[in-house]
Amino acid sequence: MNADRRKTIAKVQERILAALEILNSCQQDVEDVQNEEQEAFDNMPENLQGSEKGQAMEEAISLMEDLASTLNDACDSINDSLDQVVEL
Predict the structure, then answer these.
(1) Residue among 84, 82, 87 at smallest CA distance from 12
(2) 70: domain range?
(3) Is residue 33 within 8 Å of residue 63, measured between CB atoms?
(4) Are 12 and 85 in contact (CB under 8 A)?
(5) Total domain count for the chain?
(6) What tens digit of pLDDT does each residue of 20-79 get?
(7) Long-range contacts of range 70-76, CB-CB < 8 Å, 24 or more positions apart?
C-alpha cells in the first residue's frame, strides 16, 4: 500500500474508532435500561410477573439483551477487521 492510501486508511480508522465509541456507548445504555427493566420485573409481585404486562417486560428484557450482544459482536468484528487492515 502506498503512502497516500495509508493516509486515507488512517483517516478512515479515526472515523471508525469514533463510530465504535458511539456504538459502545449505545450498548452500555441498552444494558443499563435492560438492567433497570429486569430490576422492575424482579420487584413485581409474582402474580403480576405472569400477567400480560410481566410477559411484555420479559420480552423487552430479552430483546435488549440480544441487542446489546449484537452491538458487542459488531464492535468486536469491526475492531478485528480494522486491526487486520491497519497491520498491512
Answers:
(1) 82
(2) 3-87
(3) no
(4) no
(5) 1
(6) 999 999 999 999 999 999 999 999 999 999 999 999 999 999 999 999 999 999 999 999
(7) 71/23, 71/24, 71/26, 71/27, 71/30, 72/27, 74/23, 75/20, 75/23, 75/24, 75/27
Residue 36: CB partners within 8 Å, gap ≥ 6?
A: none
Contacts 24+ apart (CB under 8 A), 20-26: 20/75, 20/78, 20/79, 23/71, 23/74, 23/75, 24/71, 24/75, 26/71
Cell matching residue 22: 458511539
Residue that has been written with the C-alpha cell 409474582 in this structure: 46
Amino acid letter at 46? E
- Amino acid 14 reads E
- pTM equals 0.88
